[in-house]
TrEMBL record:
Signal peptide: none
UniProt-listed Pfam families: STAS
Organism: Planctopirus hydrillae
GO molecular-function terms, A-Z: anti-sigma factor antagonist activity
InterPro entries (UniProt xref): STAS_dom (IPR002645), STAS_dom_sf (IPR036513)
Domain of life: Bacteria
Protein name: STAS domain-containing protein
Stretches the record annotates as Disordered: 263-285
Domain STAS: 1-124
Length: 285
């Protein structure tokens, strides 16, 4: 897949080309974006689709379990434009909860549904020649593949990846909290944000390579590194920041999924008074 410099800047609707097909991997509504950002990025995505003369569209919903009306409305509008021109539109990796929501909203027939991105692309995309050449190369050199698998077997069992990425994320959080406690200058905080974002992008890229549905703890770490920690830092770790709240929710959930307990639980760093600003007030009895 290829990603242009321009679309690499997208945070709500990252775009990737696959032959004659555009793959959009939307962030969930929980990522903390405002409606003007959603509209602006989707408008740019539609413009990119038209100018690149693409034909089909795949929405990969693996980044979140739920997508609210803001994002769903944009997906429907984009889908209708593509279908009106004779293209096919698919959903990949939808959660069970999301499928239920689509059925309730009576929009589940808008898209073809596939359990994974690869199956969606296999079904609807005209694959570029380079992809076929890569696959041919993989079949032609089994010895190289076996060597890579052997190296992976030698290295990975000696490293607890759940703990490794858990500790890295807590380290970034701890360093950020310590810096904020010193009341840093705006320039110093901006430099810290830039460094943290680069670290989180690297962590996310690694996690998306090794995580799977069988490694729920690592999937939770992806949500933390990709969707919550950086927006929380942008909020300066305020106690009423939704990304800040969700970071600790997902970290705690990931800890419960780990086979071996971690040395430092995320709860030990959770600030007192951290609340969910989207929680509905309790009804008076």
């Amino acid at each position: 897949m290829s990603r242009s410099d321009r679309t690499h800047l997208h945070q709500i609707f990252p775009l990737e080309e696959f032959g004659d097909t555009l793959v959009v991997t939307p962030a969930g509504d929980a990522a903390g974006f405002h409606l003007p950002h959603v509209h602006a990025e989707m408008s740019a995505a539609i413009d990119f689709f038209d100018k690149a003369q693409l034909k089909h569209l795949v929405f990969d919903l693996s980044r979140a379990r739920y997508f609210g009306s803001q994002v769903l409305g944009q997906l429907i509008v984009f889908s209708q434009k593509v279908k009106a021109k004779g293209g096919r539109v698919a959903l990949a990796n939808p959660s069970t909860e999301m499928l239920d929501v689509l059925r309730i909203m009576k929009v589940d027939t808008v898209w073809e549904v596939f359990p994974s991105r690869s199956k969606a692309l296999t079904a609807i995309a005209r694959r570029p020649l380079s992809t076929h050449l890569v696959q041919f190369g993989r079949r032609s050199f089994p010895v190289v593949l076996l060597g890579c698998l052997g190296a992976a077997w030698w290295y990975w069992p000696r490293r607890n990846l759940d703990h490794h990425y858990h500790d890295q994320l807590l380290g970034i959080y701890r360093e950020s909290r310590q810096l904020l406690d010193t009341n840093p200058r705006d320039q110093d905080w901006d430099q810290h944000l830039t460094k943290s974002r680069q670290q989180l992008e690297k962590i996310t890229a690694e996690l998306e390579t090794i995580a799977s549905s069988q490694r729920e703890a690592l999937r939770r770490m992806i949500y933390c590194s990709r969707d919550y920690l950086f927006p929380a830092l942008q909020d300066k770790l305020k106690l009423d920041s939704y990304p800040h709240f969700m970071f600790f929710q997902e970290m705690k959930a990931g800890e419960h999924e780990m086979g071996e307990p971690v040395k430092t639980l995320s709860e030990t760093l959770r600030p007192e008074g951290l609340t969910n600003p989207r929680a509905l007030p309790a009804n008076p009895s």
